[in-house]
User: What shape does this take?
Amino acid sequence: MAPTFVTIGVYGYTEELFFQTLKAAYVDLFVDIRRRRALRGTQYAFANSNRLQPRLAELGIRYLHRLDLAPSNATRQIQAIHDRLAKTARRQRSGLAAAFIAAYERECLAAFDAEQFLIDIGPDAKVIALFCVEREPAACHRSLVAARLSAAGMTVTHLLP
Assistant: This one.
């Protein structure tokens, strides 16, 4: 049976609700698709990789970092410039700039193969979480990966706080 996918961001969650949501969704593989795996401030410190990985292990959730699905700094700058011009705070963003989407698709998704992705993560995963930080899936590159998985026939659900 093919695994199902969920996507999740960290903004808007408390630490307790974040991990409860993963457990309630029966996530058994957590795929971190961030380039920089740390967050500033104490509110979301639980999502820093060095704290996140041990907590996931306690819950029996395997952790995997897929840097190949993280936008480069140059691609991230495209979105940052768009946000500045639109006078939109990053945490308030509701969508991605067309230029960012095009750059991300060239950089990360041009060679993405959903079937190979499943082979790479192994046969044991049943519910796979794609993780980045933005609250809204449409404001995050994880939605672009999710769209590719959906197009390949995979079931994808976006988890929200």
Observations:
- The chain is about 40% helix and 15% strand.
- The radius of gyration is 15 Å.
- The mean pLDDT is 95.
- The first strand starts at residue 4 and ends at 8.
